[in-house]
Amino acid sequence: MAKSASTTAKTAPAADFEHSLDELEQLVAKMEGGDLSLDDSLASFERGIGLYRQCQQSLEKAELRVRLLLDPDAPESAEPFEPER
C-alpha cells in the first residue's frame, strides 16, 4: 500500500502539469472564440497567466531533475537543452 502512495507522489507533478496545460488550452480556445464578456475574458486571462506560471515552474523543475541525473556532482555544468526547430 505504501508503494502505491509513493508512486502517486512521483506521478503527481506530471499529472499536475498535464492538467494545468489542458486547462490552459481550454481557456485559450474559449477566449479565441470571442463569446466571453470583458469580465469573463479578464478572469480567464488571469487564470491563464497562473496556469502558465505553474507549467513553466514544472518544466524548470523537470529540467533541474534531468541535470541532476546527468551529473549529480555538478548540475550547473550541464549544457542547457537546445529546443527542436
TrEMBL record:
Which keywords does UniProt give here? Cytoplasm, Exonuclease, Hydrolase, Nuclease
**Major location category of this protein:** cytoplasm
SUPFAM superfamilies registered for this protein in UniProt: XseB-like (SSF116842)
* Pfam families from the UniProt entry: Exonuc_VII_S
Is Glycosyltransferase included in the keywords of this UniProt record? no
Name its cellular compartments: Cytoplasm
Q: Name one GO biological process term.
A: DNA catabolic process
Q: Which reaction does it catalyse?
A: Exonucleolytic cleavage in either 5'- to 3'- or 3'- to 5'-direction to yield nucleoside 5'-phosphates
EC numbers for this chain: 3.1.11.6
Signal peptide, first to last residue: none
Supply the Gene3D superfamilies for this chain.
Exonuclease VII, small subunit
Q: Does this entry carry the keyword Hydrolase?
A: yes
Q: Name one GO molecular function term.
A: exodeoxyribonuclease VII activity
Any single GO CC term annotated in Swiss-Prot or TrEMBL for this entry? cytosol
What InterPro entries does this protein's entry cite?
Answer: Exonuc_VII_S, Exonuc_VII_ssu_sf
The record describes its quaternary structure and partners as: Heterooligomer composed of large and small subunits.
Which family is this sequence assigned to? Belongs to the XseB family.
In UniProt terms, what function does this protein have? Bidirectionally degrades single-stranded DNA into large acid-insoluble oligonucleotides, which are then degraded further into small acid-soluble oligonucleotides.
What the entry lists under PANTHER family is as follows:
EXODEOXYRIBONUCLEASE 7 SMALL SUBUNIT
Full protein name: Exodeoxyribonuclease 7 small subunit
- The encoding gene is xseB
